[in-house]
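User: I'm putting together notes for a lab meeting next week and I want to include a structural view of one of the chains we've been expressing. I don't have a solved structure, so I'd like a prediction I can at least talk through. The sequence is below, exactly as it appears in our construct file.
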Amino acid sequence: MSRTGLAEAPSEVVTAAPAAPRRPGAARRYRRLISPVALVLGWELAARTGLLAPEKLPAPSDVLATGWRLTRDGTLFVHLLDSLTRAGAGLLIGGVLALVLGTVAGLLRLGDDLADPPVQMARMLPHLGLVPLLIIWVGIGESLKISLVALGAFFPIYFNTYAGIRDIDERLVEAARTCGLGQAARLRHVVLPGALPSLFLGLRLAIGAAWLSLVVGEQVNAQTGIGFLMMEAREFSQTDVVVLGLVVYALLGLISDLALRVLERRMLTWRRGLRAT
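Assistant: Thanks for the context. Below is the predicted structure for the 277-residue chain, given as structure tokens.
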């Protein structure tokens, strides 16, 4: 009771609500564009002021104009479609084979003993250095291009599948067995989710290796494809077309990597990794 005879009201306890997680703003999203845009602008300025010779490295605007011209007459679309077909076929063949062998070697001791040693030995061989041997084996047609892409995609997917399975905590598998889950259920609910992060990493590396392999493959007796377009342009000293081909390869790799990132985020919503600050 206070001196005035009135009871003081108890002080109100204010509990601060937990702060909502901040989402990256628009400025932060587009911050990644600063350095590429600055690089292109510097390239354009150097080309226009004569610091870069046009026959050595044309301006980005000239490359863009060449791309628009080839797109308008349908030439670029024809070559791009053939390159995508080869890359898709090679990724499918190499990826499925790597996924099967990596799973067998990761889950079964016998599979590990039989499949892993030859793969480890073959890993030391640069697959692009096998072009002369592949020409003898499969010829210089479409099989050569697809085989190179398949070889480039095989090893990243195999090793990441194998490592993803082997890195799963064995206590999780034992806990699932204790809870009464059968072998198929353990594979579905424990092994597959545990191996998916490594598998997605392998896919991202495989896509990069596939485009690199395709660049080399399409320069060997090809009649279509972005690599063939670049080689033909080199014969006529069309530097703008050569640079355009490099830009197309870079964009294809970037778009495929972004698509895989989106798929990874949707399939791995349960994972909470460290975020950059």
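A couple of points you could mention at the meeting. Residues 1-7, 9-14 have pLDDT under 50 and may be disordered. Residues 183-217 form the longest helix (35 residues).

User: Perfect, that's what I needed.
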